[in-house]
Write a structure and sequence with these properties.
single chain, mainly alpha, 76% helix, elongated
């Protein structure tokens, strides 16, 4: 898989970037705000690892070069999506006033930060 890493990164970038940017562009063209455009862009990013892996396993392709390529790109795609969802979630919290610097609201923001850090380190 290490020899395929540059191809996997390229496939992941293309697989996530184009649907995301298309979703954002369409929503901005329809005169929605950046926040709504980012959320809609995130919904267009494909994720199907739960479906692809059993199919690859059934056809005994999962341990081949093609199987490694598909699974590697899918896993990297999922990692990128988690970070983008974390970014948008914190952005929404800041915009709505849920996560502010006031003493009463910092607990929610701290819990979100702990959640995202635990997702990163797991």
């Amino acid at each position: 898989m290490k020899s395929q890493s540059s191809d996997i990164v390229l496939a992941t970038v293309l697989n996530t970037l184009f649907p995301f940017l298309l979703g954002v562009a369409v929503m901005l063209y329809l005169r929605y705000g950046w926040l709504i455009a980012f959320v809609i862009g995130l919904t267009h990013m494909p994720t199907a690892e739960a479906v692809i892996v059993p199919i690859l396993d059934e056809f005994n392709i999962i341990r081949t070069k093609v199987g490694n390529y598909i699974v590697g790109a899918g896993v990297l795609d999922d990692v990128i999506e988690v970070f983008l969802v974390a970014f948008v979630s914190v952005w929404i919290g800041m915009k709505t006033g849920i996560a502010t610097n006031e003493k009463r609201d910092t607990r929610c923001f701290d819990q979100c930060c702990y959640f995202y850090c635990s997702c990163f380190f797991c």
